[in-house]
Amino acid sequence: MPYKLVKENHFILYKGIIIEPQIRDFFIGRIWTRVNTPFPQEKIEKYKEQNYFNKKPGISINRSIGIFNRKRYKCNRCHNEQQNEFVQYDCARCNKTCVYCRHCINMGRITSCTDLLLWNGPKPKVKKTHELVWSGAFTDLQSTAAQQLIESLKENRNHLLHAVCGAGKTEILFPAVLYALKKGWRVCIATPRTDVVLELFPRFKKVFPKTILHSLYGNAPSHPGYPQLVIATTHQLFRFENAFDFVIVDEADAFPYTYDRALQKAVLKSKKVGAPIALVTATPSAKILAQMKREKWGYSFISRRYHGHPLPVPRLEPLWSYNKIIQKGRIPKKLLDWTTTRLENKEPFLIFFPTINLMENAIPLFQQLDKKILGVHAEDPERKGKVLKLRNEEIPGLLTTTILERGITIKNVQVAVVGAESKIFNSSALIQISGRVGRNVLFPSGEIVLFHHGITVEMDEARNEIIRFNKEGFRMEAK
Ligand SMILES: [Zn+2]
């Protein structure tokens, strides 16, 4: 019969419940709304009675001192404190005026009368037997960076891994992730983009066959077990608290992470106090670079692609009034020629468009060239399948919005941007898009054309930055 130690040499009959591993494994490190768990409500209530959960109000209300005696709200899930994002409403459940948080509304409504649950029960034993099964070889630069990242972990400091597109960033993370897992740490790789989660998950699963890892994104299928490695969108980190011993933010410069302070707070909240963060990016912002220097982070810079070839430099081509021409039902001449050449050479291609609207107008025109050409955008439920089709050479090319600017690796892909002068294509987006080209050692170069209606500063900046990287890589090689 189970007993519980109350005081030394003094036992009482333990009336607790036998903890179901799936409940424990799910809740550890999470902060979750009480009424909306994947388990029966009665069960959760029982665990609560036995103090297996701590609880927090969904929204904390503080009264600021002063004559106005104003209320200040804070969302305990997303840590949003922007007062204009809190909305008062007449709550049918409480018969009172309650408040909800608009900031994290797309993950389900958090109100002042919602309870958030945090696991307070026993933790599972973490495995320390992990294995890295990877037969690739590092270049000197990669190997140095991988080592520097481990050094930062040993010293418990943050790290910036600044690496050009195609430097093999993911592989560079493997040794550090293995180091952390073997210490029994819980590791999270977070990225602003669902596509990047989808790309990274199978790669990590393959090389860490003995590790339980889960991928988390909107509407992701649920997996069993306690994951010691989590690959998630940064949004999903709203649902974690004090969970991770090491967080890697991949593509740390990508929208919306850079613009959304609450997402950055979500990363901080999801990790344990004092746990190190590593930022991985090809295009760090001036702000990140300044913070890195100020706070004395570890730093690795890889200016060369893993195969040693330079980055393809974008070619700028005017494509005057492309918008009108496409709307009139024609593909502008230069773009038509470019696409026909790709089709003739049987080279897979991506054509980026600034808006879904323009892309949708263009799809039927391109399908007249080859009816297998498809289009993809953020809300497309088949986007995963379409990218796979391009990779498997089942379709010749894909029209896309900026959602495919990162994380996509397709052998011998040729890339064009239509409307490169549009605001959405800032220099970091253009560098990322250019970085899709020439990633494979067998096809280290390729076409990257920026079709435009007038050259912008951002286009110039992207081009100069890529040229600078190439010079830098050459300089480092010559040393
Ligand atoms: Zn919120």
Task: Outline the fold blueprint.
Layout: E1 3-7, E2 10-13, H1 21-27, E3 31-33, H2 41-49, E4 53-57, E5 59-63, E6 71-75, E7 86-91, E8 96-101, E9 115-119, H3 140-154, E10 159-163, H4 169-182, E11 187-191, H5 194-207, E12 213-216, E13 229-233, E14 246-250, H6 261-270, E15 277-281, H7 286-294, E16 298-302, E17 315-318, H8 322-327, H9 333-345, E18 349-352, H10 356-367, E19 374-376, H11 383-391, E20 397-400, E21 414-418, H12 427-434, E22 448-452, H13 457-478
Parallel strand pairs: 10-15, 10-16, 11-13, 11-14, 12-13, 14-15, 17-22, 18-20, 18-21, 19-20, 21-22
Antiparallel strand pairs: 1-2, 3-9, 4-9, 5-6, 7-8
Helix pairs in contact: 3-4, 12-13
Bound molecules: zinc ion.
Zinc ion (ZN) is lined by residues 75, 77-78, 80, 101, 103-104, 110.
CATH class of the largest domain: Alpha Beta
Bound molecules: zinc ion
Estimated share of beta-strand residues: 15-25%
Number of domains: 3
Tell me the Rg in angstroms.
25 Å
Low-confidence runs of at least 5 consecutive residues = 1-13
Summary of the model, kept short:
With 479 residues, this protein is of the alpha/beta class. It contains 13 helices and 22 strands.
